[in-house]
Write a structure and sequence with these properties.
Elements (H helix, E strand, L loop, with lengths): L3 E4 L4 E4 L5 H9 L12 H9 L3 E8 L2 E9 L7 E9 L6 H16 L4 E7 L3 H9 L3 E12 L2 E11 H7 L1
Parallel strand pairs: 5-6
Antiparallel strand pairs: 1-2, 2-3, 3-4, 4-5, 6-8, 7-8
Length: 169
């Protein structure tokens, strides 16, 4: 039986199992995703699955995997959790928004976060718009900090604090 962390009407977040890692690598490396997330090896994902400071999660819709998410810093003494990855394979259906709502609920209610933060690449304005519409505030931008496919890409740091989440839920 899979450990379910959270669910909504159409999305289930469950703990990643070792046999999910081929799907994770495929989703991460898909042309619609690979320009927006760092590429990890299977071993790096396996360590995240086994780690006690991370939640490596499979996103399911209709009983099928439709993405994955990684939350890091679950044991951070400052109670600052990072949404390290959010990869959705079924685009344009609102799944990302549903998952983000569940991620906030888990971070603040399950793991007692004070702050949930993430970074988003400048070449991903749709994701940034989603994060901002869900209450994340811009903290700053790391200008031209990545060099991808012959171009520099900036990264913006966003966060939502516990009291902001509580006020919006």
């Amino acid at each position: 039986m899979a450990m379910i962390l959270a669910s909504s009407e159409r999305v289930i977040l469950r703990v990643t199992r070792p046999n999910d890692l081929d799907f994770v690598l495929e989703a991460e490396n898909h042309p619609e995703n690979r320009n927006y997330v760092s590429q990890w090896t299977k071993e790096q994902h396996r360590k995240a699955v086994e780690g006690t400071d991370t939640a490596h999660v499979i996103i399911e819709t209709n009983m099928e995997p439709s993405g994955y998410m990684i939350l890091a810093g679950l044991n951070n003494p400052a109670r600052s959790i990072e949404l390290l990855r959010l990869v959705v394979t079924e685009k344009g259906q609102g799944i990302g928004r549903d998952v983000l709502k569940l991620a906030k609920r888990c971070a603040f209610n399950r793991w007692n976060a004070h702050r949930l933060w993430l970074d988003v690449r400048s070449n991903n304005p749709l994701a940034r718009s989603l994060y901002e519409s869900e209450g994340f505030q811009v903290e700053g931008t790391l200008r031209d900090c990545l060099f991808l496919d012959g171009q520099y890409v900036s990264v913006t740091i966003l966060s939502i604090l516990e009291h902001e989440y509580q006020a919006s839920s």
